[in-house]
TrEMBL record:
Residues of the Phosphatidic acid phosphatase type 2/haloperoxidase domain: 85-196
Primary localization: endoplasmic reticulum
Designated name of the protein: Polyisoprenoid diphosphate/phosphate phosphohydrolase PLPP6
Gene Ontology cellular-component terms listed: endoplasmic reticulum membrane; nuclear inner membrane
Species: Rhinopomastus cyanomelas (Common scimitarbill)
Recorded catalytic activity of this chain's protein: (2E,6E,10E)-geranylgeranyl phosphate + H2O = (2E,6E,10E)-geranylgeraniol + phosphate; (2E,6E,10E)-geranylgeranyl diphosphate + H2O = (2E,6E,10E)-geranylgeranyl phosphate + phosphate + H(+); presqualene diphosphate + H2O = presqualene phosphate + phosphate + H(+); presqualene phosphate + H2O = presqualene alcohol + phosphate
Topology of the protein relative to the lipid bilayer: Multi-pass membrane protein
Alphabetized InterPro entries for the sequence: PAP2/HPO, PAP2/HPO_sf
Keyword line: Endoplasmic reticulum, Hydrolase, Lipid metabolism, Membrane, Nucleus, Transmembrane, Transmembrane helix
Enzyme Commission number(s): 3.6.1.68
Pfam families: PAP2 (PF01569)
Family membership: Belongs to the PA-phosphatase related phosphoesterase family.
Molecular function terms from GO: sphingosine-1-phosphate phosphatase activity
Subcellular location, record wording: Endoplasmic reticulum membrane; Nucleus inner membrane
Length: 212
C-alpha cells in the first residue's frame, strides 16, 4: 500500500504496550471495586443509613479541626516539652496540606462519579481525588502520636483503628477510589519521616521557639 505511515502516537494507541494494558486494567478494576464499595455514597445506597456516621468520621480526619486544635494547644501549653511536640505536629499538618495540594494539582484525577460534593469545608484542589488527604493525614497523625505520646496499649490500638476507619470511610462515602487512599496512606507514612528528619527543637530553631 502507498498510504502514508501512521504517526508514532497513533501506532502506540493501536499497539499498546503490556505495561499500558496492565495499568489500564488495574485502573478499571480500581474504579469498579471503588464503586462497589461506595455503600454510603448516598442515602439510597446499600448502607445509606450509616452515612451520617461516616460523615462524622470524615470531619474527625479533616485538616481544619486538627490545625485549630493543635494551634490552641500550642498557645495554652505551659510545658516546653509539650510545646515542642505540638509545634512539630503543626509543622507536620502544614506539610501534609502542601504535599497533598501539590500532588492533586499535578495529577488532577477527578473524584468518583458517584460522589456527592457535600464534603466538609473544601478548597479549590479538593475537586481532585488523588491522593486522599484524609488518608495521608490519618497515617501521619497516627505515626506521630504513636511515636511521641505515651499511651496505654488499648489507646494505641484505638489510634490505629481510627486511622484505618478514616481511610476506609473515604471509599465507602464515594469520595475516593481505593488507589487514592492507598497512595495517601503511603504518602502520610513517608511524610512523618520528613518531619522526624527536620524535627524542630529549641536548638535547631531558637527563633521559632522564642515566639512561644
Amino acid at each position: 500500500s502507498s498510504s502514508a505511515p501512521l504517526p508514532e502516537e497513533d501506532c502506540m494507541k493501536l499497539n499498546p504496550s503490556f505495561v499500558g494494558i496492565a495499568v489500564r486494567s488495574l485502573l478499571a478494576i480500581d474504579l469498579w471495586a471503588s464503586k462497589r464499595l461506595g455503600v454510603c455514597a448516598g442515602e439510597d445506597s446499600a448502607w445509606g443509613s450509616a452515612r451520617p456516621l461516616m460523615k462524622v468520621i470524615e470531619v474527625s480526619g479533616h485538616g481544619i479541626p486538627w490545625l485549630l486544635g493543635t494551634f490552641c494547644g500550642l498557645c495554652q501549653s505551659d510545658s516546653s516539652a509539650a510545646r515542642e511536640v505540638l509545634l512539630n505536629l503543626l509543622f507536620a499538618l502544614l506539610l501534609d496540606l502542601v504535599l497533598v495540594a501539590v500532588v492533586k494539582g499535578l495529577v488532577k484525577r477527578r473524584r468518583p462519579t458517584h460522589n456527592k460534593m457535600d464534603m466538609f469545608v473544601t478548597i479549590s484542589v479538593d475537586k481532585y481525588s488523588f491522593p486522599s488527604g484524609h488518608a495521608t493525614r490519618a497515617a501521619l497523625v497516627c505515626r506521630f502520636v504513636l511515636r511521641h505520646l505515651v499511651l496505654a496499649v488499648p489507646l494505641r490500638v484505638l489510634v490505629v483503628l481510627w486511622a484505618l476507619i478514616v481511610s476506609v470511610s473515604r471509599v465507602m462515602l464515594g469520595r475516593h477510589n481505593m488507589t487514592d487512599v492507598l497512595f495517601g496512606l503511603l504518602l502520610g507514612y513517608a511524610s512523618y519521616s520528613v518531619v522526624e528528619y527536620c524535627w524542630l527543637s529549641p536548638l535547631s530553631a531558637p527563633a521559632l521557639f522564642a515566639l512561644w
